[in-house]
Amino acid sequence: MIVAEHVSKHFKRHRREPGLRGSLRTMFSSQYDLVRAVDDVSFEVPAGVKIAYIGANGAGKSTTIKLLTGIMRPTTGQVRVDGLDPHRRRVEVAHRIGVVFGQRSQLWWDLPVLDSFRVLRHIYEVPRAVYDRNMRLFRDRLDLGALGNTPVRQLSLGQRMRAEIAASLLHDPAVLFLDEPTIGLDLVLKQAVRDLINHVNAELGTTVMLTSHDIGDITGICDQALVVDRGAIVHQGTMRELLRSVDTRAVTFEYAAGSVTEAEALQIIAAELPDVRAIPAESGRIRVEYPVERWSARQVIAVLLNRFDLTDVLVPDADLETLLRRIYAGSPAEPVSVGDGA
Ligand SMILES: Nc1ncnc2c1ncn2[C@@H]1O[C@H](COP(=O)(O)OP(=O)(O)OP(=O)(O)O)[C@@H](O)[C@H]1O
Hints:
Number of domains: 2
Number of helices: 12
CATH class of the largest domain: Alpha Beta
Distance between the termini: 37 Å
Domain ABC transporter: 22-255
Order of helices and strands: EHEEHEHEHHHEHEHEEHEHEEHEHE
Strand order of the largest sheet: 5-6-7-3-8-9
CATH superfamily of the largest domain: P-loop containing nucleotide triphosphate hydrolases
Radius of gyration: 24 Å
GO molecular function, one term: ATP binding
Organism: Actinoplanes sandaracinus
Bound molecules: adenosine-5'-triphosphate
Helix content: 25-40%
Protein name: ATP-binding cassette domain-containing protein
InterPro entries: AAA+_ATPase, ABC_transporter-like_ATP-bd, ABC_transporter-like_CS, ABC_transporter_ATP-binding, P-loop_NTPase
Strand content: 25-35%
């Protein structure tokens, strides 16, 4: 359904020099840095799959979504969505895909929400029965009726996101691209959005590609994961396989106030549990990340019980957080100098 073959997207960025004189020189300079936002990426996402596109800030996720939705053209390589080149066949592809960019609105700023939906219905030539069915669904699941006559520009971020998600699904798209879709939503609405996406996937077989920094979105929606690091794919498989690749796990604990200082606690851990990483967390907790080939949860907890006056211990099962922390620790695309540009 979604295919990327050796896709790269490079951006030229004017090389900036510091200071006023540098700024003036920058304006007339032909020196560029080249950013490899996406670098020779190939993947295939079959129909009906819900896949998370995971990577650190600047790893190239939004750029990939822009390539797949036809907003940008690859520098080299090819993308296909439902068999079509999304840039060349933008209109046909637009009828088959839904897109949500959490950071950017797709709605008409001055139109009341319901009017936007009426306009979209005509643009996408949505049959009356489909329109009515979907509007009922959005009223039930996203409380869309409450937003009815408010112009989009007067909506809060959370209200606008509900409208954006509904708009992306109005025409029963075969593929749904979601870039940070639950940004600004409270916990209840985040769950409502995840439920709605899972519902349309189950009912209509909609293929879903999601980027999100919210772990709940990834685990609550996706069954597969594509991991991108510095513009290149480093893992593709099921969520279960991704979690199995975790070689570090974590235990978080809390000790009785006043029993030891944080510095003492860190020293004890360093002495008793070599090769672990102890990270002070909020409200006096410490997160202990341990390599699974060296330590088991049981051994780590035994040491903690022995050395601390524990008031709480938390052992998360599927430790996607540790994995993502490591992925996100990878640096973004490094610009390389390309000398004199055109
Ligand atoms: N139009 C552009 N011109 C120049 N550089 C760009 C442009 N768009 C993106 N980049 C650069 O390409 C790289 C990848 O950006 P992109 O927005 O795709 O990352 P991302 O993975 O979506 O990040 P985030 O998680 O922060 O949204 C970054 O280094 C970014 O600065």
